[in-house]
Amino acid sequence: MTYQTLEHCVGNTPLVRLQRLGAHTGNTLLVKLEGNNPAGSVKDRPALNMILRAEQKGVIRPGDTLIEATSGNTGIALAMVAAMKGYRMILIMPDHMSQERKDAMIAYGATLIEVPHASGMEGARDLALRMQAEGQGIVLNQFGNPDNPLAHYESTGPEIWRDTHGSVTHFISSMGTTGTIMGVSRFLKEQNPDVRIVGLQPGDGAQIAGIRRWPEAYLPTIFERERVDLIMDIPQTAAEDTMRRLAREEGICAGVSSGGAVWAMLQLAEQVRDAVMVAIICDRGDRYLSTGLFSAK
Question: Where is each Tryptophan synthase beta chain-like PALP domain found (predicted)?
Answer without folding.
Answer: 8-283
